[in-house]
Specification:
Layout: H1 2-29, E1 35-38, H2 39-62, H3 64-67, H4 70-90, E2 94-98, H5 102-116, E3 121-123, E4 126-129, E5 134-140, E6 146-152, H6 158-173, H7 181-202
Antiparallel strand pairs: 1-2, 2-6, 3-4, 4-5, 5-6
Amino acid sequence: MVSGMGESLSAVAAFVPAGLYLVGLGTVFLRRRPVVISGGVDAAVLAIALAGLVTVGPLFVWGPSLATQAWQQGGLIAVYLAAVAIAILFSRPRLVIYNVTIEQVRPLVAEVLASLEPHPRWAGEAAILPNRGLQMHLERSSGMRAVSLVAMGRRPPLEAWGEVRRRLSPAVCSLSVQPDLLFGGALLCAGVALIAGAFVASLF
């Protein structure tokens, strides 16, 4: 009985966070406004969503006896969180803009940069603010309607980058876009199915 209950809880803990993440992401793509989030927060949310699969999931697959070892779960969680924290710490500053195309967001980025410095330099999708020592480039996401604005260089000035973020976020969020019904609906359905499947599995 205890073993079965442990397996049920493991299934819920492994798949429900991932399902909630898919539901949230699907809802974002069904909106008529883009959503702007910092790269660190975006990575942290994804890491939390996958935490159950990374920690509880393998133990659940390997066997109930392993799933009952709390110290093993704690060790996996600690290693996982440490790896995520290190990855975020050493990643380049970025803004992730969901539910928008690079063609829609580029004019807004150009407008914001021009407000910070009269003549920013553009080369393709890369921009330089020489007086502020800031370089960045727009990066389209493969597989979904999302764009990242990524700071370049070894040590991007955090003050200048923070000013770009503060000015760009409200400008992007005021943009009106068409909802991505197909992709957003698919993510939403997949998330709901994952959550429902986890709870149904917990009943048996």
